[in-house]
Records
---
Amino acid sequence: NNNGGFSTDFIGANYDYPEADYATRAKIWQQHEDYIRGLLTFLATDSRVPEKMRAEMQEWGLCKDEFQDTGGWPHALYVREARRMLSDYVMTEADCRWDRKTEDPVGLGAYNMDSHNCQRLVKDGRVVNEGDVQVGVRGPYPVSYRSIIPKAEECENLLVPVCLSATHIAYGSIRMEPVFMILAQSAATAATIALDGNLPVQKVAYAALREKLVSDKQILEWTGPAAKPPQTLLPPPKLDGIVLDDTSAEKKGDWLDGSLTHTRRVGEGYIHDGNEAKGEMSVTWSLEVPADGEYEIVLHFPPNPNRATNVPATVTAGDRTGTVKVNERDPKGGG
């Protein structure tokens, strides 16, 4: 899912689901099933698909030993995110990045902040997917007890380990099944304390909850190796010379935000082509130098083993143009 320009993600078709009634949700469910079944059938049978790909797709089928009551098709629609609670503590990107640390942890999250494309549009005659977010976290981070209980004035006997109080971006990291299991275990422990003491869940003493969780071997704080902080270079205004970041470039094509966090870079991030549309995408900077003279041009990039080894970089000055090839796998070259 969310792989390449077109995938099993039914982009933009899920917006009405969270607030929809049951009948409308059933229609949305069926639309998603029809879309995925249609995509698989198209890839396996349509003459417009290369024969090699069709042959490969025809080797696959639905699972024979699972979902037997629904013909091998999953019996539930995967709804990653919908309505969430808003409580006294809202988990945010700051928690995931270790910029903030809650005082009442009941478990750890660790996945990257992941949000898929949210709309597909046409820009300059090209189909573009928009909205994909893939941002790494600093390491395992604590999830607050207050984020899984409601505000006291709204409800006193509810614990919410799944649809917890979190922003869209933070929830993109928290929403993993192992984290739900962890938070549900902590919620159940809090519920027993509340029942035994005839207390609202907001009145459960965190010290008592923590003691019980720790005795049950629940991990509340990250005690492993410290996460390596991002090796971000100084902000562009503080670097010597004339600095042009990707944010100031003229871009052609559907560039993606990079997700590597433990790498040196200019500014806050970097972009890449997603290994798609080779030769059709470009990034262009234009500038006027303050004075005549000789200038050294430095191209900075985050090196990685999956990078290209022959990226063309073209420089035009007046009527002179030159092109060099850049190896973005070389850790000494730009990283």
---
Amino acid sequence: MCERAQRNGLLGDYKAVFKEWEELKIIEKIDCENETSHFLPHRPVVKTDSITTKIRPVFDASARETGKNSLNDLLYKGPNLIEQIPDIIDRFRSYPIGISADIEKAFLQLGIAPEHRDFLRFFYPTENEEIIYRHSRVVFGVSSSPFLLAAALSHLLEHVPAEDSEIADKLKLSFYVDNCVSGVSNATQQEKFILKAREILSHGCFNLRNWESNVECKYISKSTGTTKLLGILWDLDKDVLKCRVCVEDLKIDSNITKRFILAAVQRIFDPLGILCSATLPPKILLQNTWKLKLSWDSTLPDDIVKPFLKWWGEVVKLSDIEIPRHLEINDTTRKCTFLLMPAKRHMQLAYFLEQTLPKV
């Protein structure tokens, strides 16, 4: 790992992250041997489009020796307390003013009991000597970490003064891991929500930062351009939502396989079902490969390859599709739901009908 990081010019920056963590007491250097311990492999991950951390260590708690359990295999994950992405986005769309933020180093604000830290050891990235550290904070990548963060936030939001309970109740439904996505009805509520949310989270040593909105105010970091929101894109200027279609780095070759079709389908993240009619054809083709009992890397027949290539040639156009973020719903709005069940698929459609006064 060190040699690869050195070749890519990342080793210096990678070490700097660990140095910062040591100063912040996120990790601690240890000298003593302990037979009851576990070491986590790690590697640097670079995110050039990140507005905060460009390089960060990723620890693999699922790594295992042949025939043995990994750390994640042995840990109790805890119940899933995380809100569903479609539910969060639906609530977000109900407000005229959308707001998003994230918690700075969220997992690293939670401490690990000293008697458990030896199971979170790792080797410092150096070629010359063996230097051992261990984590003193919750580690991203450990299977129990999402529960621990969600439980900590839930506990914090349950124990607020009575005057803050309305904002706290709203925050309970606004978090997806460390991302906060919510909204308000007007500019006055916008400032109040941001100030109160910051204050409430600060009592748990959580820094709610990177505030973004379609309406500018003095506490907002960004109110123009396009930003990421729970895996989709939010155009702040036009206040519209778009799906991310990440197919640029998926190179097509002459041999189309079941593995390639699956990879192509997975490049389109569409939690709201905006593109379901366009993403359904390759899924049906993939289903047909299973019916034919083809292996992952077998050459596919023409009646599968040709329609897939036609779809692939047009898939980039999906990134141009956008929908209004704000979905106005009031007492005069009716929801009508239809269930369609053709031979090869079934789908549920929901329409919101707005009753208006007749023209005079």
